[in-house]
Amino acid sequence: MRIEHVDATNSEETTIVIEGFERATTLLHVTDSHMTEVDERDPEAMPAGKELGARFRTRSPEGLLPHAQFRSVLARARQSNAEYVVLTGDIMHFPSSANIETLSDELNALDLPFLYTLGNHDWHFPHLAWSDETRASYYPRFESLTQGNPAYQARELAGIRLVAIDNSNYQVSPAQLAFLQEQLASELPCLLLLHIPIALPSLTPDVLAEWGAPIMMAATGWTAESQAEWKVRDNDPSTLLCHRLLTEDTPSNLVSIFCGHIHFAHADVFGDNRFQYVTGPGFAGASRVIRLLPG
Questions:
Q1: Which residues, 6 or more positions from 65, have their beta carbon under 8 angstroms from its beta carbon?
Q2: Per-residue pLDDT tens for 79-134?
Q3: Beta strand extents in the chain (DSSP E only)
Q4: By the 8 A CB rule, do 113 and 84 touch?
Q5: Is residue 259 exposed (0-12), middle (13-18) or buried (19+ Cβ within 10 Å)?
Q6: Which residues contact 131 (CB under 8 A, 6 or more apart)?
Q7: What CATH number does the domain containing 24 carry?
Q8: Which helix (H) or strand (E) holds 109?
Q9: CA within 20 to 30 Å of 64's CA: 26, 38, 102, 233, which one?
Q10: What is the mean pLDDT of residues 203-212?
């Protein structure tokens, strides 16, 4: 499958020409909005919600609180005539009932189909332990937004398959890997949606400069101290197999990866002329229009 990436350095709009694709299709990619809505249903999170909302407001170019900034970013879907919205995690800063209702209300008001996969903040309250057990305990809150399965999902749109894997704990489980392999076995061109970018040599220096730790999936170079700080365990075998699948045994129908997490935009080649696109954070007003064209 021949794929052409047009001006991959553009952080706000990505155009990909795909051989044999059915018709021109536009999507909007949103990530890392970090909404902080909270009410008395989650009383332990209320102090953090107020403090974090004010903090993210200082990072908004318009001085907006995260919810208002998210609504502003979503408006770009209409402006760009997008047919679909993909959201790759940390749309909320914690899984409060108010945040989940806000996200659902905004997406319903937009009235476009969407695919949403979780980031590490979506399922974690600041006052709780950061662990797989915590994530599993809050998964039920997200079932209505993920067609019943926050761990992995797939949708078809105009002859393309959108595949989402929740790698928000820096790992890919054996079940997730099997699902990904099954989706990539189809003949349809696929876009892979993750929260945490896969580790690539061209991305690593910028991530280390920004965060002081290699906060990417299947990364090397962690120290014991940074692993403890970020609560990242050693790479699971299935995580390494997934990374190898994507970077060394890249399926011909895998068009691109779209992700977030690191709070800056980036584009890197992986596999054979495939790009991983990291989109800038929604709390700063960033998003990415994805235009898919037949070639």
A1: 36, 53, 56, 57
A2: 999 999 999 999 999 999 999 999 999 999 999 999 999 999 999 999 999 999 99
A3: 3-6, 13-18, 25-30, 84-88, 114-117, 152-157, 160-165, 190-193, 254-259, 266-270, 274-278, 288-294
A4: yes
A5: buried
A6: 231
A7: 3.60.21.10
A8: helix 97-110
A9: 26
A10: 98
Dist CA 195 CA 29 (whole Å): 12
The single-letter DSSP state of residue 235 is P
Domain, as residue range, for 165: 3-294
Q: Can you give the pTM of this predicted structure?
A: 0.97
Going from the C-alpha of 128 to that of each of 51, 94, 229, the distances in angstroms are 17, 10, 15
pLDDT reading at 158 higher than 90? no
How far apart are alpha carbons 221 and 215 in whole angstroms?
A: 10
Can you read off the two tokens belonging to residue 128?
Answer: 């709780």
One-letter amino acid for residue 39 of the chain:
D
> Does 271 have pLDDT greater than 90?
no
Distance in angstroms between the alpha carbons of the first and the last residue of the chain:
10
As a whole number of angstroms, the distance between CA 77 and CA 83 comes to 8
Q: Is 207 helix (H, G, I), strand (E, B) or coil?
A: helix
State how many domains the chain has.
Answer: 1
Q: Give exposure, 20-31, as e/b (b: 16+ Cβ within 10 Å).
A: ebeeebbbbbbb
